[in-house]
């Protein structure tokens, strides 16, 4: 269990992450930092008053000095995405916000593991790696963890089977250029394409792969249009990553990190399967991809690099 987790940003996402961490009892102390101090105080107080029914955790608002000796720092600060707005359109605004945060938090928590959640997560993860002075293996973006969860949920829904039986990943940008390498997707070790034919008792529905990828890419926008934010799924996603960063045993997740030659791609942060532990990023996995999937991954990297060229870090 991580002894201390600091969350920068106490908005819908940051407060939901704090709540998810508390429910999962993943920290003995949680610090909420926000420019709106009353908001941070209120969220911490609300969660704290439920802890008698959950387990002991000290959750409170604070300033950057209160983040000293944090094991994990979670960055959620930034302007929220508006309906119809792409994650990448947020880039310069949220880069500027992060620029002001980095020197304040790294000064007091130089040895922490950093989890980047704010969007565009791949760009902000790249910014953190390039400008913070923190070792690259200690900087992890939530990347396509949420996209991967959406994919698994959709396939499980289609086949009426437990989501833990669905295995597969979303690669690339957490955004419009993400893609599913279908060659790696399976249900109970049976390739997705063959699962329906393997089912003896009754006919299973078929699905269109393009529709599934569309669902994964557009889910965030649909939710934002309906309720003005996304917070529950990313809250659980981030708590799951923090849990993985609390153990010596490695956990395989699709995280955004700096590529340094994997798949022939360098100097960009995007998601491929990666093994993490309490030591941070242990290894990135170069899973076998088809030629078409390789082209999709390089396209995603190029899309992100085009944005990076236009950003003032």
Provide a descriptive summary of the structure in words.
This protein is α/β, with parallel strands linked by helices and 313 residues long. Helices cover 41% and strands 20% of the residues. The strands form three sheets. It has a six-stranded parallel sheet, sandwiched between helices. A three-stranded antiparallel sheet has the order 7-8-9, with helices on one face. Strands 10-11-12 form a three-stranded antiparallel sheet. Helix 1 (12-23) runs parallel beside helix 2 (37-48), helix 1 (12-23) crosses helix 8 (232-244) and helix 3 (91-108) packs across helix 4. The longest helix has 20 residues, at 291-310.
Looking at this protein, list some descriptive labels.
313 residues; alpha/beta; six-stranded parallel sheet; three-stranded antiparallel sheet; 9 helices; 12 strands
């Amino acid at each position: 269990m991580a002894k201390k987790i600091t969350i920068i940003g106490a908005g819908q996402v940051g407060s939901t992450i704090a709540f998810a961490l508390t429910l999962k009892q993943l920290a003995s102390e949680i610090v909420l930092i926000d420019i709106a101090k009353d908001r941070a105080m209120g969220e911490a107080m609300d969660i704290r008053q439920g802890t008698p029914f959950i387990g002991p955790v000290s959750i409170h608002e604070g300033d950057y000095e209160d983040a000293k000796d944090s094991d994990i720092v979670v960055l959620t600060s930034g302007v929220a995405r508006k309906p119809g707005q792409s994650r990448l359109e947020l880039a310069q605004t949220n880069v500027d916000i992060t620029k002001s945060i980095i020197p304040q938090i790294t000064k007091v928590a130089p040895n922490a593991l950093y989890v980047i959640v704010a969007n565009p997560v791949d760009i902000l993860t790249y910014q953190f790696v390039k400008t913070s002075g923190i070792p690259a293996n200690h900087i992890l973006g939530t990347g396509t963890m949420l996209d991967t969860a959406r994919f698994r949920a959709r396939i499980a829904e289609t086949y009426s089977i437990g989501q833990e039986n669905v295995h597969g990943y979303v690669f690339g940008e957490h955004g419009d250029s993400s893609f599913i390498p279908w060659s790696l997707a399976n249900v109970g070790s049976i390739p997705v394409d063959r699962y329906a034919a393997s089912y003896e008792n009754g006919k299973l529905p078929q699905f269109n792969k393009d529709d599934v990828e569309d669902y994964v890419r557009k889910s965030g926008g649909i939710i934002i249009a309906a309720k003005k934010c996304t917070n529950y799924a990313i809250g659980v996603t981030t708590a799951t990553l923090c849990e993985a960063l609390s153990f010596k045993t490695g956990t395989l997740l699709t995280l955004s990190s700096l590529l340094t030659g994997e798949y022939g791609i360098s100097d960009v942060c995007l998601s491929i399967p990666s093994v993490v532990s309490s030591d941070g990023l242990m290894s990135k996995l170069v899973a076998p991809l088809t030629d078409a999937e390789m082209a999709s991954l390089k396209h995603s990297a190029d899309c992100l690099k085009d944005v990076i060229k236009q950003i003032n870090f």
